[in-house]
Structure formats: C-alpha cells, structure tokens
Amino acid sequence: MKVPVTEYLEIDLERELWLCRRCGHEVGPARQAYKEGLLVYARDPAEIHKPILDPALYEFTFAPDGKWISILEYYCPDCGVMMETEYLPIGHPPLNDMQFDLDALKAQWSGREPLTEAELAGPDPVGMSQHHHSHKQKHEHGGR
Amino acid sequence: MGKVEKPGQAVREQALIDQFLADNVLFLGPDPEIMHEHDIAPIAELEREAMRRESDPAVLALIRDRLQAGANEAFEMLEQMGAAPGAKWGDLITGVYTASGDLAVSSAGGVLIFASLVHHPVKFINKYWTTDTSVGVRPGDAFIHNDARYGNIHNTDQSMMLPIFHDGRLVAWAGATVHEGENGAIEPGGMPSLAEQVYEEGLKMSPFKIVENYELKKDLVTFLQNSVREPKLQYEDLKVKLFVCRRIEERVKSAIEEFGLDAVVSALRGGLEDTKKEVSRRVSAWPDGTVRSMIIADGTLRENCLIKINLALTKKGDELIFDFRGSSPEFANRANNTLLSSLKGMLCQLFLVFVWPDLPRNQAVFAPIRVITDDKSALHSSYTTPNAQSMMTFFPAFTAGQQAVAKFLYGCPEKFTKVIAPWHNMIHTFIYGGITQHGEMVGNLCADLNGMGGGAHADRDGEHAVAPIFAPMADLGEQEMNEEEVPFIQIVSKKLMKDNQAFGKYRGGQGYEMIASSLGSPLWGFMCSCIGSKIPSTPGLFGGYSSPTYPLCKIKGADVFEVWKTEPQKFEFSIPRLMNERPFKGASYTSHHSGLQFEIANRGDLYMITQGSGGGYGDVLERDPELVIRDLEEELISHETARDIYRVVYNPETLLLDRAATEAARAAERKARKARGLPYKAFLKQWATEEPPPHLPYYGSWGEDRSTIYAGPFAGVPRARMNAAAIQPVYMPNPKDVKIAELERRIQMLERGASV
C-alpha cells in the first residue's frame, strides 16, 4: 500500500520508503527525513517575488529581503518536480517537517482503501456543494 | 523546632490562614486556574441531573437549533444596530453559555476566535463576584469586560455578559462580544502599536457589573465615555449589547418554557460533550506523528526584526498537541505579545473555520487539544507586557498551525473541507483618528482588514480578497458609506495589483490596492498594523510559494485634490506607477514597513497599502498553462511572471498559447533545477550555521535545539542567549533614539570629512 502524504510524496508502507508521486523515484527510508533524499537550492527571494517598486529608489519594494531569508527549493532528483519550498532565515537548519509513526500508519491503513485525487483534495464544506447535485435536489439543502 | 503540637492543630491553623487570606485579598488579578484552562467545566449537579432526566436526541437537537437560531438572530441585531464599524461588518459574536460559563452555542458567523475565549470572564464572575456581597449576580444584572488578561484577544473588543435565571437559579449566561475599536489608548482606534506599557493601551476592564435591573448604570457609563475618544459609540454599543443579551435571554427562557429546564440544560451540556467526543474521534483518523513548522514574524510594528514562531504539532491516538516551545521571547515594551488564552482562541478557530466547519460553534471544539509554550515567550506573555497588537504573533502562530494541519490532513480519508495553503494572515487596513466632517472625534478602523486573500486549494486557486482568517462570514462594508462618516476617501479601492500573488500550481487569492487621502478635516491621521514587509507572512504549501512582502507607501506634500483641479493627467490609479514615476514635483515619496504609528495626514497626502495574497499550492511548473493565460487576460500577472515563473510560452500580442514550446520550456527548467540543486547533506554543510548569523536581529531558538533562546542584536544592544526555562523579556530601544543615534554618527563622520 502506498499512502499519499503530500501532493508530491507518498510512503510505501511495505518497503518503508518515501516515493515521489510524480515519477516513483525512491526518495529515501520513510523512517528518516524525506528532505535527505532531495536536491536543495537556496534562492534569492527577489527572483520569485520581484520588486514592484524600483529598488534603486526604495528599501521596501514588495520583494523580500535576501539578506535576511532565502527560499529553499526542494527538487526530486529524478524528475525535477519542486516538492517543497521553505522560507528560512539565512543559515537556519531546515526543519524535519514530517515525522510520521510508520508502525501506527501501517496499522491505520490495514483496513483502508486507497484515496482518489478528489478525496485527497477534500470536499467542499458541508452544505456548500454547488455542482454535485441534480436540479431535483437543489432545494433540499439550502438551509445549512 | 522543638515545639510540641497537638494533633490537628496545624491543620486548623492552616485553615485559619487560608480563610484570612481569602477574606483579605488585596487584588483580584486574572486567575491562572481560569486562564490556563480551556477544557469545558466539570459537569455540575444541575447538568448531571438534567442529562439523566432528558436525553432524547430529537428534543435536544431541536433545542440546540432553536438556541442557534437565537444566537444568529442576536448576531444580526448587533450587526444591524451596532455603531462600531467592527459591528457593522460582522467582527463580533453572540452566544449562550452554560451556568458554569462554557460557551455552548455561538452565532454561526463572526469572529470565531472569541468562541474559545470569552468563557474566561464568565468563569471569573462566577468564581469571584457571585459570592461577593459587594457585587453579587442577580436577575437583571449584566457585566462588561475587555481586558485580554481576563480572557480576550485585545482590549479593543468588549464583551457583555448577562446571567439567565429560572426560578431564582442561575441556569445560563447570554453574551455578546464586539470589536468596538476606540478604547482611549495612546493612539486612536483601539489597537495601539505605540504602547510600551499596558497602561498605554487604554481601558482595561476586568469583568464588572454595569447593568442592574436591566438598566445601564449611568455613573459607570459616564466614566467609560470619559475614557474613550468616541463617547457616543461607547454608550450606543453598550445599549445594543444589552438588548442583544436580553434577546438571547428571551430565547433561552422561551425554550425553557416550551421544553422544560432539564431539556435546555441537557442540550447545552450535551452539545459540549458531544462536540468534544467528536473532535477526539476525528483526530484519531489522522496519521500519528509530528509535523514541524516555523514562521518568522518580521517585526514588532515599531521596527523590523526576526521573531520566530516555532511549532511542533504532534498527533498520537486521539491526542493533538501544539508545542510552541522555542518561539521568541516576549517584548517588554512592544504591543505584539500574545497571552496564552488568546493563542488558544486563535487556534480554536483554525478548526472551526478551516478544518471542521460543520461542527457546532462552541468552545468544546478545542477542549481535547493541548498547547505547550515557554513561559514569558511571545506566545505566553506576562501580565505586565502590552498585548494590544497580539495578532502580530498569534496570526503567525495560526499560520504555522494551518500549514502543519494540512500535512496531517492531506492523506487522511476523513476530511470535512478542502486541503488549502495558508490563508493570508495580516490586517492590511487603515486605522484612523481625528475630527470628522461632522465635527465628531473618532478613532476606529476600516473593514478592509476583512479582505484577506484565500489560500490556494489542493484543486483550485484561492479566492481573491475573500475573508479574514478570524471571521469567515465577515463583510468588507461599503466604502461609500464609510465616507459619509469619516473625512477620507479611498481614491483606489479594491483594485488587484499585478503579481501581488503567491505563485503555485494553484495560486493564492490576491489582495487589492488601497490609496487613501484625507479631505475636509481640521485634524486627521492614519495608522497601519501589519508585519510582512521584509519576510513574507504567509507561506505556501507543498511546493507553492508564499505571498509577496508588503510595504506602506506614502506621497506627502502634494495635495492630490489640487492636482486633480490643475493637472489631472498626472494622477495614476496605481501604486507602482505613482511611486516609480513620481509625477508630483516637490512631493516626498517613501516606502516603509507596514507598522505605522499614528501620524497626521494632511489634505491630499496619499497613504497606500496593499491587501495580501493567500499562499500558493504546488509546483509552479504544474500550473495549467491555460490558467496562466487567464491570469494574463485578467491582468493578475505580468508577462515576466508568465515567462520566468510559470515558464509558459505564448504570443504576447494575442496571448495564444504554444503548448509544445511551453512543455519544452518547463522540461528545460526541470533539468536546470536538477543541475543547480545540491544533494541535501552537501547543501547543509554550506548552508547551516550553529547559531543565527551576527547580522540577523533574531529572536527565538535556532535549529532543532529549543532550549537556547537568542535575542538580538539590535541597534547596538548585543545579542542575549538565555535558557528557555528562564526567559528575560526583550526591551527594545525607541526607534526615534535609534534613528537619532544613526544620524549623529553620520554627522560626526561628515564633520571628520569621512564618507557616510
């Protein structure tokens, strides 16, 4: 069973591996931090959030201050998908942001079916659905 | 030693001492027993008996719906009749509390942070004033409160609480809480960032009785009116809150009359217990583990610095623990400190709004969830530290929680709403004060703070300027109505700025530009209260980028109303064009961080801010190129962004998409990523430092070690290192002193003939 954890990562429960959900690349052991199996690049934030005001004229320009932070971009070494971004103060060690209990996960998923993409994205809030009913149903759930 | 005591003597002596101390309390400050507890109260005998006698779920559901309708009705009344701008735009809640003080039914809309906060003052009244012969709690009484240290966000919000009696017995409470605005602080509008002490934050009302026999006590009302800049508003909204509480009382009493006391008490208590059980059940479905997140708040509103908000969110079985240890120390003389109870209120509404919006609106939603903090941290501040701008640390804490919760939720089969990237978390708006065109003194704020951009969803873009993180059903209000009451206009309002967007496979909802200028007032001024000018306040999710950063821009010294008369062609309805092209001769053009202390704004001066974007979701290279073209057509992004960020190839004249070339450009970028990315361990060697680099004014722990807290350096004050168990509050120098020192240094250098 492969359990999706993020848009780009899943855990192969049997093999205890982090996998890339785009290309199936084996990122690393699921009992370790997935970031250890990725490529990282520290990007000047002004390359992404470009100055809207002229930096020659102003200190504050809508672009973040590259002397204070960088954007750490994490790429799959195989397909190059950007799995994660992390805005960190210069020099701050990256976070081990997801540490799941693998044994508990195996027990939890022993009786579960794989999820569809729609189930992963989640439902509209109860009573807010506008597109998944027939016209006959239209007037039956307006009061929530 | 050596003294022979008879058995029981020590016990009797201790009892005497305890009684003496209880009878001679010098000061009833906030009670830690009340303030540190967010669980529902122990079940009372009245409740146990009622639940035993009436447990028919159909009857209880009917009563809950009835009371919910009553709370919603009261909400509408308050919104329609309230004088405060915050009331008009839905920054309030109303509700029914149990006799013990738990908020059991809250209005569906409004500021849901209050849902797990405003029970504290009711519990204080129950504990201290009920038995106090000089106060007492009787039919027809009502109490007022706004001091966050007794349970609130900050003292711009005022609550009224009215006990409901049946056959002489206290059976419930009615309550109404409103963001009133003006509170007599050192700056107008109720949210002073200039306050360096709690005593500069204006009225701090511990819960006290202001109504007897359903009548406002005029002596106290007069005192309150004299304490604020808007005496009429203070009086009107006291009256409105009283009538609202009376309407809730009426609804509770009519439910008792129809269904009996047992049924109503059972419905209130049962609703809380059921909610608590359901939350535990839902948490159980999440994966066990720890998710970590950190947000850097980039300032105190007086100065820029790096304030760490550190979160480890752990889920095990049906337990969920927010552990914020390692976060920044509190600031002794800044208003950005958060009280522990306020933090919990903010986290509670994360679940009420973004995770389980289908659950009943009551405080039990947060009851099973635990929160751990360092004492005297910015998220668990002391009695003496100012807290009027607590949002500047608890909004980032909310965002850390929102990002972490998404990582638990994504793979969980049981979800009740969409997985989303963090919502924009800052209150980009104008706070104002001065004399209106009608000759009235006012101090309040614009509803634009409710126009935050929504986070991108896992399957679609975020909504533009849709709602604040703290009140999903709040309104933006009509600017034209606002202009009838206050002497400034928004020359540009609700205009989306190109590239003010968090990029991603799905982009964040955008914010809008606002350009304000005062007109027709003898004395007027503005404030702004946001962080996020150097470091984005709102990150993305799963590879999505964050929001941009947001400055405050000002053009002063050119009366724009005169420009329009003589050279109207010089005016542009655009912040970037006005700031970059500088069309008005002789005017000053400046950009700043968005923490503006109250400043006089002359006629025709331009104050310009931008509402913020929600976080982006997923890799930009996965964004459907058609959506990029649509963003271009809607002028949400520039051609540079379409080309450099989204790597889309198209004809810039016709916007005709070239799919093959786009795929090739994206493949090339993926290849370039692999070429420039370093393996993690190699990257770490060149990136990570043992402690914060010397040039960073950094507050909080560094890396995995949460036991050492750093503070500074800042403006000549060297960096302090302290143990997380013994935090010393940070004292910041006056920004004007910092500026004077810098100018003096430059003067000295100039006098020596050196380059500055």
What keyword list fits this structure?
heterodimer; A: 144 residues; alpha+beta; 4-stranded antiparallel β-sheet; 3-stranded antiparallel β-sheet; 12% helix; 26% strand; elongated; disordered C terminus; B: 756 residues; 7-stranded antiparallel β-sheet; 7-stranded mixed β-sheet; 19 helices; 32% helix; 20% strand
Which regions of chain A have little confidence, pLDDT < 50, spanning 5+ residues?
130-144
Total domain modules of chain A: 1
Mean pLDDT of chain B: 95
The largest sheet of chain A, given as strand count, sense and whether it forms a barrel, is: 4 strands, antiparallel
Helical stretch tally of chain A:
3
Number of strands of chain A: 8
Structure characterization notes:
The complex is a heterodimer of chains A (144) and B (756). Chain A is an alpha+beta fold and 144 residues long. Chain A has one domain (2-90, 100-121). Helices cover 12% and strands 26% of the residues of chain A. Chain A contains 3 helices and 8 strands, in the order βββββαβββαα. Chain A has helices at residues 45-48, 102-109, 117-121; strands at 2-4, 9-12, 17-20, 26-29, 39-43, 69-75, 82-89, 98-100. In chain A, the strands form 2 sheets. Chain A has a 4-stranded antiparallel β-sheet, with no helix packed on it. Chain A has a 3-stranded antiparallel β-sheet with strand order 5-6-7. The longest helix of chain A is centred in the last third of the chain and has 8 residues, at 102-109. Chain B is an alpha+beta fold and 756 residues long. Among the domains of chain B are: 13-38 and 47-281, no CATH class; 418-618, no CATH class; 623-677, no CATH class. Chain B has a 7-stranded antiparallel β-sheet, sandwiched between helices. In chain B, strands 8, 9, 10, 11, 22, 23 and 24 form a 7-stranded mixed β-sheet that branches. In chain B, a hairpin with a 2-residue loop joins strand 6 and strand 7. In chain B, helix 4 packs antiparallel against helix 8 (231-259), helix 7 packs across helix 8 (231-259) and helix 8 (231-259) crosses helix 9. Chain B starts with 8 loop residues before the first helix and ends in a 5-residue tail after the last helix. The model of chain B has no long low-confidence stretch (mean pLDDT 95). Classes of the chains: A alpha+beta (144), B alpha+beta (756). At the A-B interface, strand 5, strand 6, strand 7, strand 8 and helix 2 of A face strand 8, helix 14, strand 18, helix 16 and helix 17 of B. Strand 5 of chain A pairs antiparallel with strand 21 of chain B.
